[in-house]
Amino acid sequence: MWFWKIDRPARSGYIFVGLYLIAHALLFVGLTALGLAAISGALGVPLAISQVTFNPYYFTAVMFGLALAFGIAAAVPLKPWAWQYTASVLALSLGLILTLPLAIFALGIWLRDEIKRPFGILIQGPDVALPPEDRRLHHGDPAPGMVPEQDAQILDS
């Protein structure tokens, strides 16, 4: 698999997120099978929670779509679009209350710089967008007017 090409500190993050996505895909495959059983009449009871009845065709289509989305996210190549696709699927999993703590943890891992780098996403420092005069402040070079000797000369004149 492609995650063996990743440096060791980030590899465990890839493995965790991959297993998380595969577990979700399998969960939704099972729910798709439940929907198919309801459609065929093998269940003998309708899909219902208290007074709310689910349309089995709609339920099966949604569960199959989610299984497909999570399955694809678990097997994407190392491309920038693939990182973004997986991040969006992980964000989608934030809506599932059952696995919310794991979803937050997986999304936190996926947003790390060492995870983004193999996908070709350029990581920029916090001051790249600053103009050059402000960038000097972040690199230790004082801006004009910020040096005490210059301040003393300004006050003397």
Automatic annotation (TrEMBL):
**Membrane-spanning parts:** 12-45, 57-78, 90-111
Query: What are the alphabetically sorted keywords of the record?
Result: Membrane, Transmembrane, Transmembrane helix
* Keyword Membrane appears in the UniProt entry: yes
Its recorded name reads Uncharacterized protein
Native organism: Lujinxingia litoralis
